[in-house]
Design brief:
By secondary structure, the chain is an alpha+beta fold. The protein is about 30% helix and about 30% strand. GO terms for molecular function: aminoglycoside 6'-N-acetyltransferase activity.
């Protein structure tokens, strides 16, 4: 069972190590997350979370409000969206269903805010495994976009699609 907990400065060495793992580099080869600075900040538009399996850290999730985040990575986007970054850091944790559990919990967090209409992800064009992962969750490819040095697809999951796929509780 996966539990998501806030990332803290105590996770610095862990995140630095994960940044060097081949599966993380394949998904995110050009970003410098600036962990030393970012782990010390807690802006209200972002959650940085460590995924733990039975108490052991195995992955990372970041959820942001792309209209409000301070680097303007997503450019001009509509209000009431969220964007997710997700990866498994431990090589021996791959293929165990942890990513699926992490994504389900991340989507539940995103859509817990009633104003959130959709969630965005931006996998590399070359990362076909991640495309299949997101598509299984109902994400739809809506654009191809260059983010810095990275050639990415933008995928979007609408609230209604997430609900119809059983990813969200039906409102009472």
């Amino acid at each position: 069972m996966i539990r998501l907990r806030p990332a803290t400065p105590d996770d610095l060495d862990l995140l630095r190590r994960w940044d060097e793992q081949p599966q993380v580099l394949a998904a995110d080869p050009n970003d410098d997350w600036g962990w030393e600075t970012e782990l010390a900040r807690e802006p209200d538009w972002r959650e940085q979370l460590i995924a733990e399996a039975d108490g052991r850290p195995v992955g990372f999730v970041q959820i942001i409000d792309p209209a409000r985040e301070d680097s303007h990575y997503w450019g001009e986007v509509e209000d009431d969206l969220r964007a997710i970054d997700i990866w498994i850091g431990e090589p021996d944790a791959l293929g165990r269903g942890y990513g699926t559990q992490m994504m389900r919990q991340a989507l539940a967090r995103c859509f817990a805010a009633p104003e959130v209409t959709a969630v965005l992800v931006d996998p590399l064009v070359t990362n076909t495994r991640s495309h299949r992962f997101y598509e299984r969750f109902g994400f739809v490819r809506v654009a191809r976009r260059q983010f810095g040095l990275d050639d990415c697809y933008v995928y979007r999951l609408e609230r209604a699609a997430a609900r119809s796929l059983g990813l969200l509780a039906t409102p009472r």
